[in-house]
Design brief:
Protein name: HTH-type transcriptional regulator
Shape: globular
Strand order of the largest sheet: 1-5-4-6
Pfam families: MerR_1
Number of strands: 8
Radius of gyration: 18 Å
Largest sheet: 4 strands, antiparallel
Keywords: DNA-binding
Strand content: 5-15%
Order of helices and strands: EHEHHEHHEEHEHEEH
Length: about 210
């Protein structure tokens, strides 16, 4: 799917195994995932990533942003907390592991001058993909368009275009955030229990190993 400055393209994008996949605002927005209910975990079993929330200061520390940025992005709808929004005074926003990864990616895009409309569509795309898909994804931008690349050949194809391209390996950002959150506090969504130094993707890795 392709992102341009005004969120439009001249044609319908088609996923290809030989070239990068341009992101497009309209197509992404129509496929937003619905939040899933939180299953009850047996006593003594570590919570899954989607059952852990991170408060604003923790999300800021892991994403490398200021609280002012976090607050502004939440209020303008750029990156909203998917676990729990703030309702009046005394309530705390709770961000998911995916949210924190997205926060860090948004900062990198903004630092390189990518258009805000393109960033908004990339954020939507990241939220629509399965969590495990993010590890294998590379987002690249020439300033006017953001592309999803899922193979080295697609990255090379884009680089051969000759224009200046900025790339973000989402898997690298994932691991940076994972490492940072492992040193910080999380919170169980169902009980509010504080989790000290919990690795947010331990359960995800265990699931992949069991599936293999």
């Amino acid at each position: 799917m392709r992102i341009t400055g005004d969120g439009t393209t001249g044609g319908t994008p088609v996923r290809s195994d030989t070239g990068p996949y341009p992101l497009h605002g309209g197509a992404v927005g129509s496929a937003r995932r619905q939040p899933e209910s939180t299953p009850v975990q047996p006593v003594g079993v570590d919570p899954a990533p989607e059952e852990i929330g991170y408060r604003g200061p923790t999300a800021c520390a892991a994403a490398g942003i200021t609280y002012r940025q976090l607050d502004y992005w939440a209020r303008t709808g750029l990156v909203e907390p998917s676990v729990r929004a703030a309702y009046g005074s005394g309530t705390q926003r709770l961000y998911s592991f995916r949210d924190v990864v997205v926060l860090k990616i948004v900062k990198r895009f903004l630092d390189t001058g990518v258009a805000l409309q393109n960033i908004r569509t990339a954020v939507q795309h990241l939220h629509d993909r399965e969590l495990a898909d993010l590890e294998r994804m590379t987002l690249m931008s020439d300033g006017a368009t953001v592309y999803e690349c899922t193979s080295p050949d697609q990255v090379v194809s884009l680089l051969q275009g000759g224009q200046g391209v900025f790339g973000i390996a989402v898997g690298v950002v994932w691991r940076d955030v994972e490492s940072a959150l492992a040193q910080l506090h999380g919170e169980r969504v169902d009980t509010g229990e504080t989790l000290v130094g919990h690795n947010p993707t331990d359960e995800l890795a265990a699931r992949r190993n069991r599936a293999g």
